Amino acid sequence: MTTQVRTEPITVNLGPQHPSTHGVFRMRVTFDGEEIIDVEPIFGYLHRGSEKLAEERTYVQVVTLTDRMDYVGSMLNNQAYMLAVEKLGNVEPAPRGVWLRMIASELQRIASHLVAVGFLIQDLGAWGTPLIYTMREREKILDLFEMLCGARITNSYLRPGGVFMDAPAEFWPAMNAVLDELPPRIDDLDDLLTDNDIIFSRTKGVSVLTPEQMLDASITGPMLRAAGVDWDLRHRDPYDYYDQVTFERPLHTAGDNFARYWVRVQEMRESIKIIRQCEKLIEPGPVRPEHDDVPWLLRPPIGDAYAAIEHSKGELGFYLVSDGSISPYRCHVRAPSLINLTLLREMLVGELLADMFVSFGSVDINMGEVDR
Amino acid sequence: MSRAWDGGKLADAISESLPDAVVDAGGTDVWIKPDSVPEVMRLLRDDAEFRFELLSSVTAVDYISYFEVVYHLTSLTRNATAVVKSKVGFGREEARIPSVVDIWRGADLQEREVWDLMGIIFDGHPNHKRIMLWEGFPGHPLRKDFATYEQSIVPESERRVPSALAGEIGDSQKQ
């Protein structure tokens, strides 16, 4: 005789103050036993109205707002915003400034991927150790940023046409020391995790997204490359001097949590290659245009401009409208973190409770950018 | 290097299939009628000439005398980009435009954001709710008439007086 166990769906509220939600993300999740049957994401707990604030600041002051959007990718945010300002104001950037900001943004990409990978492993239940390993490496990169601009997280390093100050002489040996140390540390990470049976069984085949699904949902960046779509704006629409450097685009075909993790680890190595090339190509000179050409109080001509970069999380775009005054008339951010969450429900439904935060972490979001 | 579609050429190409859709073109932009947004977007996604598989961004700008909804499209197969715009809500009446969620899922959260912050209604959106702010929040903060400017750093002479600048900014974009 078998006994029928009666079950019924249970709805659980997760967040916004849950430690695994990478910030203040809230989900209303319905479970049938261990299985997820419905997910409703609820946004807005970190909404600060950055786009509105930008309308009341000068073009240079808005840089500080972009730092606070994705706060583990500040240099990349600065770069996207500056490209939009330069397009809007027809600013001709200074070559040394462009090389410096490419170096800064590639360092930031490594730091951002380290955070993504570390926290993904943390979400898997490997409490502490892998996260400490990745954070230790990120710390060295933040020290380099401190040398460049005095700040570690909210850098505000870039200015229209370049950067606000040249790298000090001691930056270059320090950067080389970090770049020499990084590849073996990434190998360590690979040895520990990429070939790890537990990681395999927990991440392979979980939350699979097909390329068609992702393109339809505007998902870009490492998530898209993890499903085999070779789409990287640095390669397909080179901004700054990315057309002068060579790098590979690591692709995986599975489109699952493991592929997303793997692509990020490989991209770190490519970023190191790019920085090495930038270091060879950079030449002495001014780091930004003369004040007479590009004043601090920039007044771009009336019009609009959209510029996008390959952020560590996907396509980060800034849409600026100028009315000819000292502050943007409209400043819209195409935030990859928000848009990559479009398919969260499809990713999670049918998966297990234990995999929920792993899948969520594999999207690599940053609440500062989701809510702005 | 990806190719940005010229506004005039894109307008001609759209007009071949949908003669009444295009209103205006200039620079890299095409202005279409709000009512024809679904047909034009479906054409731009499916037609072999365009193949815009990726909807990069949906946003809106308040030009005071009207709102402008801006779509940035990307084609991976053709490595091209295009900007499609549509003007709605003339004279600050209720602004409505058809949703493109059934064409690109990626518009889902972005259209909700535009509704929340700019107050443009997307007809046919499956989950037409506020996203950043709570239900019941008074007004739509990114609208120009929401501003208080009390703590603004923008000097008095530089502030935008509603209606004074409106036509000028919107019109000059066509240059």
Strand content of chain A: 5-15%
Give the end-to-end Cα distance of chain A, rounded to a whole number of Å.
58 Å
CATH superfamily of chain B: NADH:ubiquinone oxidoreductase Nqo5 subunit
The main sheet of chain A orders its strands as 1-2-3
Largest pleated sheet of chain B? 6 strands, mixed
Assign the CATH architecture of chain A.
Orthogonal Bundle
CATH topology grouping of chain B: Beta Polymerase, domain 2
Q: What would you call the structural class of chain B?
A: alpha/beta
What letter string, H or E per element, gives the SSE order of chain B?
EHEEHEEEEHEH
> Which residues of chain B sit in consecutive blocks of at least 5 with pLDDT less than 50?
161-167
Helicity of chain B, in percent?
10-25%
Shape descriptor of chain B reads globular
Q: Could you tell me the number of beta strands of chain A?
A: 8
- Overall pLDDT of chain B: 81
Query: How many whole angstroms does the radius of gyration of chain A measure?
Result: 21 Å
List the topology elements.
The complex is a heterodimer of chains A (372) and B (175).
Chain A: E1 10-14, E2 26-32, E3 35-42, H1 50-54, H2 62-67, H3 74-89, H4 95-124, H5 129-149, E4 158-159, E5 162-163, H6 171-194, H7 197-203, H8 211-216, H9 222-225, H10 233-236, H11 257-281, E6 303-311, E7 314-322, E8 330-334, H12 336-339, H13 344-348, H14 353-363, H15 367-371
Antiparallel strand pairs in A: 1-2, 2-3, 4-5, 6-7, 7-8
Chain B: E1 3-4, H1 7-17, E2 22-26, E3 29-32, H2 37-46, E4 54-62, E5 67-75, E6 80-88, E7 96-98, H3 107-118, E8 121-123, H4 166-172
Parallel strand pairs in B: 1-6, 3-6, 7-8
Antiparallel strand pairs in B: 2-3, 4-5, 5-6
